[in-house]
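User: Run a structure prediction on this.
Assistant: Running it now.
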Amino acid sequence: MADEIQIEIARRYMRGIGFGDQPYLVYRHDDAGHPHLHIVTTNIRFDGTRIDLHNLGRNASAQTRKQVEEEFGLVKAEGRGQQAQPIEQSIQRQKAQYGKRPTKSEITRVLRLVIDQYEYSSLEELNAILGLYNVVADRGSPGSKMFEQEGLVFQLLDEQGEKVSASIKASALYMQPTLKKLQAKMKRNTELKKPHAKRVRSAIDFALLKKKAPDLNYLVGALAKLQIQVLFRQTGEGFIYGMTFIDHQSKVVYNGSDLGKSYSAKNILERCQLPAWKRPVSLRPERKWLPPLRSLNPLTLFIDLGRMVTEWMAPEVYSRTFVVDGIPYAYRKTKKRKRLKK
């Protein structure tokens, strides 16, 4: 919504409640599921008389609010709490967008939504939430100067999770969420998270027991109804090696293994039926031998030998078939038997 429209909404509201001639300050807030306004004013007039505030909220304010909602086509306040808003919609509206506002302002806005609102106990868990809003906290590569000096920067991401903005130092942001401050908070959060773990574990168990043959899509949908979001960590081949659970109701984040051995990615996958592309890739395929010769006919023998050489030299067969205990077959050393002296 344009700033001019919001200014007019504020002006219209203040006139409606009888404060149109009073000095007031309006500022916009984006730290909730919707942009909103805060207004600061005084009930003392220029001549020193006082504006009566008795039942102002129930009478003039409520009536004016309804009129403003109708005039400007706003979402009506009455009945909003009767149905919980899907968390995905709320997050989608609050996602940072590169170029929409100054990068520093966008990052600060998202940090206000996350840093002090959620309980996380590692930088990976913090990034799991920040990533939902297209922001990432980066320590730098291990061994780098920034990593060794415990520095921290924040950047904006695009919808594919790629970094698209310049780095902003944590110390340069309004909240100054430096690594030292975050680590102290994470240490406290480790204990604060524990009472909420039972709710997440119970939600997972109930979802998996309720359906005879549950799959990941069913699990994700069942938990979403309870405001619990599931994030998967996958390899390029689609192999799922980790899960993160974000409880948006209790404002806590857990890696699956932190909830207990039964809630690690490996154990949950064993309880679910996965689509083929998500099944774990075998790291040690069965050993395949070259096909036998079909006959001793010279022509057939020549064709078979050519086929054997082709399959033997194929890189995919060589690397995939003849690897035993991590060592290519051709490089495996064999011990020579010593001949017995007569």
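Residues 80-84, 276-295, 314-333 have pLDDT under 50 and may be disordered.
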